[in-house]
Structures are given as structure tokens and as C-alpha cells.
Amino acid sequence: MQNEGAVTAITAKRLTLALCAAGVIGGAVGAIAVNHNNATAQAPATVAAAPAPAPVQAPPAVAGAPASTVSLPDFTTIAKQNGKAVVNIRVMGTTKTSSRGMPQMNPGDPFYEFFRQFQDPRGGSQRDAPVFGAGSGFIVSPDGVILTNAHVVQGASEVTVKLADRREFRAKVLGSDPRTDVAVLKIDAKGLPTVPLGNARALQTGEWVLAIGSPFGLESTVTAGVVSATGRSLGNDSQVQFIQTDVAVNPGNSGGPLLNTRGEVVGINSQIYSQTGGYQGLSFAIPIDVAARIKDQIVATGKVQHAKLGVSIQEVDQSFADSFNLASPEGALVANVERGSAAEKAGLKSGDVVRKVNGQTIIASADLPGTLAVAKPGDKVALDVWRDGKIVRLNATLANADDKAAPDEREEVAAADKGAKLGLALRPLEPIERRQSGIASGLVIEDARGAAAIAGVAPGDVLLSVNGKPVNSVDQVRDVVGKSSKSVALLIQRGNERIFIPVRIG
User: Fold this and answer.
1) Most exposed: 140, 210, 374, 489, by fewest CB within 10 Å?
2) 254 is catalytic
């Protein structure tokens, strides 16, 4: 696992993405990933929502200054009532370390013999060294069900939960889902305080929210701010549409609740963007709608299933909007449809632009996987697709994300001469690729090895012909190569250039 505040560069200033709570290794955390939905998961509130906080009136306006109607919220009631259900999580794991080993150095080093005389003749041994981490969580059931982040408990051999009343319990990890970074714990207790679950879809930009957790191990810390954006995609193959806030969230806050002014949990604090690993004003929470669905599956079955449509998508920018005669650059452009997938069975094609899912408008491409993030395998979705200048309605039955994709036409081409290989992995050009490149026919080279790589063929090249014969399928390439004994001449499109490359196959 990575150290707390592990980061990924995202800007020229090396702004970095860090998981904001500790996992196991050395006070460390793990990385995350995610997948699909359409229907909002409804998690019943276990206790009544906290009373709305009384607004604090702004101070009287200075004479001559414009009157102000802005009032600030008072979070004392929420902090007092819901803080009781927020817990501190400590985890312990082990890692292998070497002992009595010799420093790595060149045998020619003058100190090599000096160190070798102290080396254990049996060689260096490995031993288990304890490592520790910490995070936050919150109780959602009086019998001890707790929600937190998957990266908080990743790799943990022992999990201890400390309640707000200072009692401590050994916790069992009922299950975790790295795709959504949600984990469910269980402690043996009854009559515990809980927090009500709200509706993250109702959040609006500018709305006040607060976080309760244990940043840097400081338990029951309350920080507040506003919702900066909703439906925020962070990449990382993540289908979660995060809630972005400017609430101060730091290492140790991970897994803690993000609450609205009604005292309802609307998210689980999960990630931060940071240059230092600490607060930078960019915090991200997993919507509680997603987390509640994951929790329900784990409690019921101990595992999680994700739905899958089976498409690769791209952002629709102004140039694509102009090309497809769209009034605005909105939607998810389908770049590729997986063979045998729910998308293919529904009739989706490369070049389609998905504009709505079950009536919900898709603005950015990330809205499509985000909308599907809480769907289950077998759910039916209605897709409004822009095709050939008009909207087409398609109905898809979502598949299981764990199902293996059907093999596509990316095949390695072998020659007949004693099994010698050309060394190319090929697939047909997609319609959208034809339009963008202006190439009417050919095969995309996805991988080049062996003889082809030695000759200078590279992934991303487009194979137009072999020995002067145009090729549009792998079978055509195989046929021509199979009749050649020593070498073949490949006509390659590389960028705006066309070049012949001779490849020896004998």
C-alpha cells in the first residue's frame, strides 16, 4: 500500500491525487478504482434527521454599505447529535522485511569483502513487521454496521473501532469494493447511535456541508465548507461521480461522513487533490447513493456485483459536435462497442452519441458511467442516442462487469513458412476512426512484435496493403503472408505519411 497522502500528478504544478485516510502499510493507504448505474439506491434512514441548524444572522451592515441578507449556518446541533455515530478506525497489518542481509553492492567494490564476512551464511531472511494505519467511519445500523473506505482497511489483519464514548471493539470486515472504495465493517454491539442517510442527487453547488472525522488521528474533528461541484469524474477508470467540496479534509478523514445542513449523510470523504498530502481546498466524497447500494449488497451477500454496458466512450467537444451536427457539445461519444456486450445486443454502434439514460441527460462523457454506477446486472436502461442526425431510442439489459468480454478480431498473423510470425496484432478500423483519419479501409496495428517490430512497424500504424494488395481483414493479411516465403512489403499509414516497410518472415 502507498503512504498516507500518496499522490498522482495532475497539473503542471504537479498537483497530486491522494487518498485522504490511512490504510495499513506504515500508516498507508491503497489506490482505488470503480463501475456503473441508473436507479438511485434508497437507503432507509435509521434515525430521524437532525433538526435544521438555526441560522446565524450576519452582523448589522455598516452605515452607507449595501444591506446583506446572507446568513451563516450553525452546525453545533449536527456536530453534537451526529458526531456520536462517527468512529475512529485503527488498522494493523504486516509486511515482509529483510534481516541480516548484505547491502547490495558490486563484487568489485573495495568494501564488498568487508561486508561479506558479517553476512549470515544461510542468506538474508525475511520476517513479518507490523504496520499501522488509521481512518474514519460512521455507524449506519444500531447493531454495529459501519461504513468506511475500502482503502482504509485494505490489507488489514486487525481492525479496531473506537466509538465517540471511548469504547473500543474489534471489527470484522464484512466486505469491501475497491471499484467504489467502499467497505462495510461490523462490531458486536447494540443500541448504537446512527446517522441518517440523505440523497446526494439533491445536492446543489454552493450548498453548505460539513465533515466529521479523525484527520491526523485527531478524533471527532469537524470541518465545514460548500459543495464545489457534483458529478465530478477523476479518471482512474473510476465510474463514481464524486462530490467536490472545499471542506478541509486531510489524512485520517477518509471514510468519515459528509453531511448536509439537515444532518443527513450525503457522501463518504474519500480523496483529495494535494501538492503536500494535506488540505488544498479540493476534497472529493463518494455519493451516499452509491455507497448505500454497495453496503446493501455486502450485508446481504458478502460481495458486490457491478453492471456493465460494454462501450468505450470519448468526450464530445465542439469539433465532434460540428461533425455530427449536434446543437451543443454534449453527450458520450461511443468509440468502441465490445463484442457480445449489452451495448452490442441493444444495437449501439461506434459513432453513436448517447444523450440520455432513462431520461437523465448526459452532458459530459463521464456522466454515462456515473449514471450507471448504482445499477445492477440485469437492470434495463433506455438510451437516447444521436445517430445520423436524429435521436434513436435503444433499450439495453445491463450485463455483469465480471463477465469476460468475447474475443475480438485482434489476432496475431502467422506465416506458413515453418510457423514464422509476422508479429502483428490487428483489428479493423472503427467507423469513427475512418471519419477522423480519412482512411477508407485498413487495419489498426495494436501491437507489433518480433519481425514486424524489428523492421520498424509500431502500434498505432494503420496497415493498408500487403505486397500491394489492399487488406481489410485479418484473414486477407494471413492469406497474403501465408503465400510469402521470405519477406512481405507492408504499406503503412503513419500520421499523414504513407511508407512501405519490408518485413522478413523467413
Assistant:
1) 489
2) yes
